[in-house]
Design brief:
The protein has helices at residues 9-16, 22-35, 42-45, 51-56, 62-75, 80-104, 108-115, 118-151, 155-171, 177-202, 206-214, 221-232, 237-248, 256-292, 303-313, 316-349, 355-371, 376-402, 405-408, 415-441. The chain is mainly α and 442 residues long. It starts with 8 loop residues before the first helix and ends with a helix.
């Protein structure tokens, strides 16, 4: 039996948002024209773009900088195919999360609270909070590193400035969520433009790029371990919760046919946003491979080392552009982490605190890490280990619920999608268990 359709929030927003957020009402009207078949071309898709761009920020965060640059510097173009495969996995997972919100009008945290025993739901909430905090440490440290490299600001004051920058980005939400989407998308485009520029400076070998993009290969145990890290870090658990929340009431279909149309539009959003993120990750590895592989440089597998390597191998300008990209990535991803933390608290325990208060609370551990002088790269690695712990607790419930017709109705996953997604989830979890083993015992 199909679940009752969610309330027509898009229609409600048209009636009420004019007096509150005119921009949001305009998006709702444009979406209604698309669903009614009155728009064509880009105008038909435009109102639905945005949620996946926010989710995509997690795939170009400061942790990705270090991993991709290390892969290119150590193994050249060899692991490009791993980056491509990881990006395809990301598309599958994020499409599942978006579908959950569209089909049910609820986010993953809310559905976990409703469908699992109370103790299990509380446990899921607590680990999700830890994951969100670990994510925030990585992003603030990354942004602080960007400020330190660009302007020589000591890391602790740089962390404070990074936190204030994240506050400013979150303030856009007060003027409507569409403006926040646009603001974060602009930061993503800064990162994209930076690495496009770096590609021209690097002058990579096109034939080698094409060959290793599609032909799998390894060069010993170390390359296998790094490939495991690239794929294993693909699924960011906090963004699984967030993406379902971004789609749950943004544009709501009045019936099953409209919800299916919205899902199709959202798939376009996912493919476009994560393709851009994938190109950025590929560019990071290609630039490192072209400039640093086989050049005899050492220490390039850290963000600071990559910055200094660009100064030496290319120019101060190239290094500055890299620093700007790192700074934009840290600002954007930190804001996303705060939003994800708000979603998991409200969904699991029906409690909500002001977004800016939450930003202040989650900023504290990151500033403590910087204040005690903990090595920034080590802090990034430690945060990724914590994120690895959280992956099964978000991914498995997502796939369980997406396969339940009683919850999903006509948008339930077909059996073949469940099988493919289950195999991918098993692979990701196994890779992360391996990474955790290496972190503690390897």
């Amino acid at each position: 039996m199909n679940p009752p359709p969610p309330p027509p929030a898009s229609a409600q927003s048209e009636a009420t948002a004019e007096s509150v957020l005119p921009g949001e009402a305009a998006v709702a009207r444009a979406a209604r024209r698309s669903l009614d078949g009155h728009s064509r071309g880009l105008a038909r898709v435009w109102p639905f773009l945005g949620p996946a761009f926010i989710a995509a920020v997690a795939y170009i965060d400061p942790g990705n900088f270090a991993t991709n640059i290390a892969g290119g510097a150590k193994f050249g173009y060899l692991l490009l195919w791993v980056v491509l495969a990881a990006n395809l996995v990301a598309m599958l997972v994020q499409a599942q999360s978006a579908k959950l919100g569209i089909a049910t009008g609820k986010n993953l945290a809310e559905l976990c609270r409703e469908r699992f025993p109370r103790r299990a739901a509380i446990g899921l909430w607590l680990q999700a909070e830890v994951v969100a905090m670990a994510c925030d440490i990585a992003e603030i440290v990354g942004a602080a590193l960007g400020l330190n490299l660009l302007f020589g600001i000591p890391l602790f004051p740089a962390g404070v400035i990074a936190g204030l920058g994240a506050f400013a980005i979150l303030a856009l939400q007060q003027a409507g969520f569409r403006r926040l989407e646009v603001g974060i998308t602009v930061l993503v485009l800064v990162v994209v433009a930076s690495f496009v520029y770096q590609l021209f400076d690097a002058n990579p070998d096109g034939s080698e790029v094409a060959r290793h993009l599609f032909v799998p290969g390894f060069a010993g145990t170390q390359s296998l371990l790094l490939a495991t890290g690239i794929v294993g870090a693909t699924v960011m658990p906090h963004v699984i919760y967030l993406h379902s929340a971004l789609t749950q009431r943004r544009i709501v279909g009045r019936n099953s046919a409209e919800r299916r149309k919205i899902l199709n539009f959202e798939k376009v959003d996912v493919v476009v946003a994560l393709s851009i993120a994938g190109l950025v990750n590929l560019s990071m590895m290609i630039v490192a491979a072209a400039l640093f592989h086989g050049g005899g440089m050492t220490g390039i597998d850290t963000i600071e080392g990559a910055y200094e390597g660009l100064q030496t191998a290319v120019s101060d300008r190239a290094a500055a552009i890299f620093g700007v990209a790192l700074l934009a990535s840290g600002f954007a991803s930190s804001s996303v982490g705060t939003m994800a933390g708000q979603v998991v608290m409200q969904g699991f325990v029906r409690r909500r605190i002001p977004l800016f208060l939450r930003r202040a609370i989650t900023l504290t551990p990151a500033l403590l890490v910087l204040a005690i002088g903990f090595n920034p790269t080590d802090a990034l690695v430690a945060s990724q280990v914590v994120l690895s712990f959280g992956i099964p607790f978000a991914l498995v419930p997502l796939l369980m619920i997406a396969a339940d017709r009683g919850v999903m109705g006509d948008l339930v996953n077909p059996r073949w999608v469940t099988a493919v997604a289950g195999a991918v989830a098993t692979l990701i979890i196994a890779l992360n268990v391996f990474l955790l083993y290496q972190a503690f015992f390897g």
